[in-house]
Amino acid sequence: MAIPVTIRIQEADFDVAREIAALTKGRTDIGAVVSFSGICRGSEGDEAIAALTLEHYPGMAEAEITRHAQTALSRWPLTGLTVIHRVGRITPGENIVLVVTASAHRQAAFEAAEFLMDYLKANAPFWKREESAGGTSWIDAREHDDQAAARWTKS
Amino acid sequence: MAIPVTIRIQEADFDVAREIAALTKGRTDIGAVVSFSGICRGSEGDEAIAALTLEHYPGMAEAEITRHAQTALSRWPLTGLTVIHRVGRITPGENIVLVVTASAHRQAAFEAAEFLMDYLKANAPFWKREESAGGTSWIDAREHDDQAAARWTKS
Amino acid sequence: MKVKYFAWVRERIGKAEETIEPPASVRTVEDLIGWLARQGETYAHAFETPRVIRAAIDHAHVKSDTVITGAREIAFFPPMTGG
Amino acid sequence: MKVKYFAWVRERIGKAEETIEPPASVRTVEDLIGWLARQGETYAHAFETPRVIRAAIDHAHVKSDTVITGAREIAFFPPMTGG
Predict the structure, then answer these.
(1) What is the CATH number of the domain that holds B94?
(2) Structural domain that includes position B51
(3) Largest alpha-carbon pair distance within chain C?
(4) Which residues contact D12 (CB under 8 A, 6 or more apart)?
(5) Please, do chains C and D touch (3+ CB pairs < 8 Å)?
(6) Is residue B32 part of a domain?
(7) Buried b / exposed e across C40-52, counting CB within 10 Å, b at 16+?
(8) How many domains does chain C have?
(9) What is the pTM of this model?
(10) With an 8 Å Cβ cutoff, is A114 touching chain D?
(11) Do the Cβ atoms of D81 and A60 come within 8 Å?
């Protein structure tokens, strides 16, 4: 049976409960579901943020996320996974990204969700521009995110 | 400001979306929310399961979960956490346990959720009895769960 | 001293709790398990493999060599399987 | 060959995409960055620090020494900040 994989890039918000239900409804082989919601914060360091605008590379973004989803499926015994990444203007407190992983076992669900988030941060072609009192500026990539993604590389 | 900690042991089901909203609503300091839902599976190995019945030690169960919640708060920069553990009869596909962690940063939210689940499995006084075609029997503890909990012990 | 039993320990003994008065020679959790195991067939069955029995004193996990003096409530149960 | 620009690379150049015909001497991604940087002030500004520029050929990340022969679409952008 094909493992359900849902990947969406959209301006609209998402509903965590609906996405969890979509992976689990009517099934009795799932023991663990992990969801990760990334949310827009109202400040970065000392600076207040009015909003983020997310730009992406259409086509490549879907391809990159699909590739990492397939890697996750090959590495962990998942029963399903969902990745939703919003684009456009997002204000503090709003959702940015969702990853949901389902598995018979909790460790697989946790690890796959972390893996997907680390890779999204480091490799998926999205860029955040922030609006603050000082104007708008592109957020710098964090060295930390590359390191987080690198820990999943088999040595 | 006190960090919101919710711990409930209940027969009723829980609503993941409501619990996530309770931790995040009206706040703009949260960047990451992780939820873990543990679900009753319809089989254990080759054997079909008709239902689980969860027994707990009232008083001690709350105390143990509270103690681990405090450890999680001291170890990770969380903005809130919720643990709900159901008791009573639960059929395949139904929820058993929920952990939700919120933080400014994703790694703290992931690690704290895994820590809480590992400790719940190994140390919280709950016991599962399963009903199958062969009658009812208490589920054996898994060595694996003790090992999972032990990895959080500082050496 | 109040004693509580859970899961199959409770089922084998046939009661969820009781009040006991062990002799002064019963100092540790291990001693108490040994004493309880001699209180009849159901107890002998419940405590037949002492190393798998877990104990808590006043809602906190304890080891088998813990002294029970001053305990208000002692509980015995199999390894936990929650989560 | 179609070229796409994203985030501040796009903003500095002032366009999101264009079709270019670099000379045959431009073999690698690195060569192309060097050639683009000489196409005017806005390009020079966009590519002033080549080591921070990331590139993709036909929707896949590539390194700076990757040969561009046969590429249908090349994209240039800063390090990604999604998730």
Answers:
(1) 3.90.1170.40
(2) 5-150
(3) 38
(4) D42, D45, D46
(5) no
(6) yes
(7) eeebeebbeeeee
(8) 1
(9) 0.94
(10) no
(11) no
